Amino acid sequence: MPVLRDSGFKGEITWLGMVPAGDGLRAEPAGQLQLGFSGIAGERHEGENRASCVRVRNLYPEGTEIRNVRQLTILSEEELAVIAADMGMERVDPAHLGATIILRGIPDFTFVPPGSRLQGPDGVTLTVDMENRPCVLPGREIEKDHRGCGARFKPAAKNRRGITAWVERPGSVNLGGEFALFVPDQRAWAP
Question: Which residue in 121, 125, 114 sits closest to 163, CA to CA?
Answer without folding.
Answer: 114
